Protein backbone atom coordinates (compact mmCIF):
# COMPACT_ATOMS: atom_id res chain seq x y z
CA UNK A 1 0.00 0.00 0.00
CA UNK A 2 1.31 3.42 -0.91
CA UNK A 3 0.53 6.79 0.65
CA UNK A 4 -0.75 8.95 -2.20
CA UNK A 5 -2.23 12.39 -2.70
CA UNK A 6 -5.18 13.20 -4.92
CA UNK A 7 -7.06 16.33 -5.93
CA UNK A 8 -10.71 16.62 -4.94
CA UNK A 9 -13.16 19.30 -6.05
CA UNK A 10 -16.58 19.71 -4.47
CA UNK A 11 -18.41 21.17 -7.47
CA UNK A 12 -20.83 24.15 -7.48
CA UNK A 13 -23.96 21.98 -7.14
CA UNK A 14 -22.76 20.31 -3.94
CA UNK A 15 -21.44 23.58 -2.47
CA UNK A 16 -24.89 25.12 -3.18
CA UNK A 17 -26.56 22.19 -1.43
CA UNK A 18 -24.50 22.92 1.70
CA UNK A 19 -23.03 19.41 1.93
CA UNK A 20 -19.29 20.21 2.11
CA UNK A 21 -19.20 18.88 5.68
CA UNK A 22 -21.04 15.68 4.82
CA UNK A 23 -18.62 15.02 1.96
CA UNK A 24 -15.61 15.81 4.18
CA UNK A 25 -16.97 13.28 6.71
CA UNK A 26 -16.90 10.60 4.06
CA UNK A 27 -13.27 11.40 3.23
CA UNK A 28 -12.32 11.25 6.89
CA UNK A 29 -14.37 8.09 7.48
CA UNK A 30 -12.39 6.38 4.74
CA UNK A 31 -9.08 7.40 6.31
CA UNK A 32 -8.30 10.22 3.86
CA UNK A 33 -6.78 13.35 5.39
CA UNK A 34 -7.45 16.86 4.08
CA UNK A 35 -3.93 18.30 3.81
CA UNK A 36 -4.74 21.47 1.84
CA UNK A 37 -8.01 23.22 1.00
CA UNK A 38 -9.42 26.42 -0.44
CA UNK A 39 -12.74 27.76 -1.65
CA UNK A 40 -12.75 29.70 -4.89
CA UNK A 41 -14.90 30.63 -7.85
CA UNK A 42 -13.07 29.48 -10.97
CA UNK A 43 -12.57 31.82 -13.92
CA UNK A 44 -13.43 30.53 -17.38
CA UNK A 45 -9.72 30.30 -18.22
CA UNK A 46 -8.99 28.28 -15.06
CA UNK A 47 -11.83 25.84 -15.76
CA UNK A 48 -10.86 25.48 -19.44
CA UNK A 49 -7.24 24.85 -18.46
CA UNK A 50 -8.17 22.29 -15.85
CA UNK A 51 -10.38 20.32 -18.24
CA UNK A 52 -8.16 20.87 -21.33
CA UNK A 53 -8.01 17.10 -21.89
CA UNK A 54 -11.75 17.24 -22.67
CA UNK A 55 -11.51 20.32 -24.97
CA UNK A 56 -12.64 18.42 -28.08
CA UNK A 57 -15.55 16.64 -26.37
CA UNK A 58 -19.14 17.76 -27.09
CA UNK A 59 -19.83 18.37 -23.39
CA UNK A 60 -16.80 20.66 -22.86
CA UNK A 61 -18.65 24.00 -23.01
CA UNK A 62 -21.39 22.83 -20.64
CA UNK A 63 -18.78 21.39 -18.29
CA UNK A 64 -16.82 24.67 -18.13
CA UNK A 65 -19.99 26.76 -17.73
CA UNK A 66 -21.13 24.51 -14.90
CA UNK A 67 -17.77 24.62 -13.13
CA UNK A 68 -17.76 28.46 -13.12
CA UNK A 69 -21.44 28.76 -12.09
CA UNK A 70 -20.66 29.10 -8.36
CA UNK A 71 -17.96 28.58 -5.77
CA UNK A 72 -16.12 25.27 -5.55
CA UNK A 73 -14.21 23.73 -2.64
CA UNK A 74 -10.84 22.32 -3.71
CA UNK A 75 -8.75 20.03 -1.51
CA UNK A 76 -5.80 17.68 -1.52
CA UNK A 77 -6.52 14.33 0.13
CA UNK A 78 -3.77 12.11 1.46
CA UNK A 79 -3.89 8.46 2.47
CA UNK A 80 -3.29 4.86 1.48
CA UNK A 81 -4.17 4.42 -2.19
CA UNK A 82 -5.86 7.81 -2.00
CA UNK A 83 -6.55 8.10 -5.73
CA UNK A 84 -8.55 4.87 -6.04
CA UNK A 85 -10.04 5.16 -2.55
CA UNK A 86 -11.39 8.61 -3.42
CA UNK A 87 -12.78 7.43 -6.79
CA UNK A 88 -14.55 4.60 -4.95
CA UNK A 89 -16.15 7.08 -2.55
CA UNK A 90 -17.26 9.28 -5.49
CA UNK A 91 -19.01 6.58 -7.53
CA UNK A 92 -19.63 6.53 -11.30
CA UNK A 93 -19.55 9.76 -13.36
CA UNK A 94 -23.28 9.42 -14.10
CA UNK A 95 -25.11 9.41 -10.74
CA UNK A 96 -27.81 7.17 -12.23
CA UNK A 97 -25.11 4.51 -12.59
CA UNK A 98 -23.34 5.24 -9.30
CA UNK A 99 -23.46 2.59 -6.59
CA UNK A 100 -25.71 3.20 -3.60
CA UNK A 101 -23.93 4.97 -0.78
CA UNK A 102 -21.44 6.78 -3.01
CA UNK A 103 -21.17 10.58 -2.99
CA UNK A 104 -22.60 10.91 -6.49
CA UNK A 105 -25.49 8.52 -5.81
CA UNK A 106 -26.41 10.50 -2.72
CA UNK A 107 -25.70 14.12 -3.72
CA UNK A 108 -25.52 14.43 -7.54
CA UNK A 109 -28.43 15.27 -9.86
CA UNK A 110 -27.02 14.58 -13.33
CA UNK A 111 -23.89 13.68 -15.27
CA UNK A 112 -23.18 17.43 -15.56
CA UNK A 113 -24.02 18.41 -11.98
CA UNK A 114 -22.27 15.43 -10.44
CA UNK A 115 -21.09 16.90 -7.12
CA UNK A 116 -17.40 16.00 -7.11
CA UNK A 117 -14.21 15.63 -9.11
CA UNK A 118 -11.32 13.33 -8.32
CA UNK A 119 -7.98 12.73 -10.02
CA UNK A 120 -7.95 9.47 -11.98
CA UNK A 121 -4.24 8.46 -11.88
CA UNK A 122 -0.94 9.33 -10.20
CA UNK A 123 0.21 11.47 -13.14
CA UNK A 124 -3.01 13.50 -13.34
CA UNK A 125 -3.10 13.87 -9.54
CA UNK A 126 0.36 15.49 -9.58
CA UNK A 127 -0.59 17.87 -12.39
CA UNK A 128 -3.97 18.75 -10.85
CA UNK A 129 -2.53 19.38 -7.36
CA UNK A 130 0.11 21.70 -8.84
CA UNK A 131 -2.58 23.46 -10.90
CA UNK A 132 -4.57 24.59 -7.87
CA UNK A 133 -1.88 24.56 -5.16
CA UNK A 134 1.30 25.76 -6.88
CA UNK A 135 2.95 26.46 -3.52
CA UNK A 136 1.43 23.69 -1.47
CA UNK A 137 1.77 23.99 2.28
CA UNK A 138 1.09 20.46 3.45
CA UNK A 139 -0.22 19.80 6.91
CA UNK A 140 0.39 16.07 7.31
CA UNK A 141 -0.09 14.59 10.78
P1 LIG B 1 -14.26 14.20 -12.97
O1 LIG B 1 -13.11 14.34 -13.93
O2 LIG B 1 -15.10 15.45 -12.84
O3 LIG B 1 -13.82 13.63 -11.66
O4 LIG B 1 -15.27 13.11 -13.54
P2 LIG B 1 -14.93 11.72 -14.20
O5 LIG B 1 -13.46 11.45 -14.17
O6 LIG B 1 -15.84 10.72 -13.54
O7 LIG B 1 -15.42 11.96 -15.68
P3 LIG B 1 -14.59 12.52 -16.95
O8 LIG B 1 -14.73 11.52 -18.04
O9 LIG B 1 -13.22 12.96 -16.54
O10 LIG B 1 -15.46 13.79 -17.35
C1 LIG B 1 -15.32 15.03 -16.69
C2 LIG B 1 -16.66 15.61 -16.39
O11 LIG B 1 -17.31 15.92 -17.63
C3 LIG B 1 -18.71 15.69 -17.51
N1 LIG B 1 -19.13 14.73 -18.51
N2 LIG B 1 -20.22 14.86 -19.18
N3 LIG B 1 -22.39 14.48 -20.98
C4 LIG B 1 -21.40 13.58 -20.94
O12 LIG B 1 -21.39 12.60 -21.64
C5 LIG B 1 -20.32 13.81 -20.01
N4 LIG B 1 -19.28 13.02 -19.84
C6 LIG B 1 -18.53 13.61 -18.88
C7 LIG B 1 -18.98 15.13 -16.13
O13 LIG B 1 -19.47 16.18 -15.32
C8 LIG B 1 -17.63 14.65 -15.67
O14 LIG B 1 -17.52 14.71 -14.28
MG1 LIG C 1 -12.04 12.83 -14.87
Describe this structure in words.
The model has no long low-confidence stretch (mean pLDDT 96). It is globular, with a radius of gyration of 14 Å. It starts with a strand and ends in a 9-residue tail after the last helix. It is 39% helix and 20% strand. The chain is built from seven helices and four strands, in the order βααβααβααβα. Strands 2-3-1-4 form a four-stranded antiparallel β-sheet, with helices on both faces. With 141 residues, the protein is of the alpha+beta class.
The tally of beta strands, per DSSP, is 4
Largest sheet: 4 strands, antiparallel
Q: What is the N-to-C succession of helices and strands? A: EHHEHHEHHEH
Compute the number of helices: 7
Average predicted local confidence, pLDDT: 96
Shape: globular
Strand arrangement, major sheet: 2-3-1-4
Please state the structural category: alpha+beta
- The portion of residues assigned to helices is 25-40%
Q: What is the terminal-to-terminal distance?
A: 18 Å
Bound molecules: ribavirin triphosphate, magnesium ion
Oligomer: single chain
Tell me the Rg in angstroms.
Answer: 14 Å
- Uncertain stretches: none
Key phrases:
141 residues; alpha+beta; binds ribavirin triphosphate; binds magnesium ion; metal-binding; ATP-binding; kinase; phosphoprotein
Summarize the structure.
39% of the residues lie in helices and 20% in strands.
Write the layout of secondary structure elements.
Layout lengths: L2 E8 L1 H5 L3 H10 L3 E8 L3 H7 L9 H8 L4 E9 L1 H9 L12 H5 L8 E3 L3 H11 L9
Antiparallel strand pairs: 1-3, 1-4, 2-3
Bound molecules: ribavirin triphosphate (RTP) and magnesium ion.
InterPro entries: NDK-like_dom, NDK-like_dom_sf, Nucleoside_diP_kinase
Cofactor: Mg(2+)
Protein name: Nucleoside diphosphate kinase
Amino acid sequence: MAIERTLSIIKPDAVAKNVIGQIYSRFEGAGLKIVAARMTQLSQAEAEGFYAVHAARPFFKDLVNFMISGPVMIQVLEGENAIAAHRDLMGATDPKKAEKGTIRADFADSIDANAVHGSDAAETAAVEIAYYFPALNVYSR
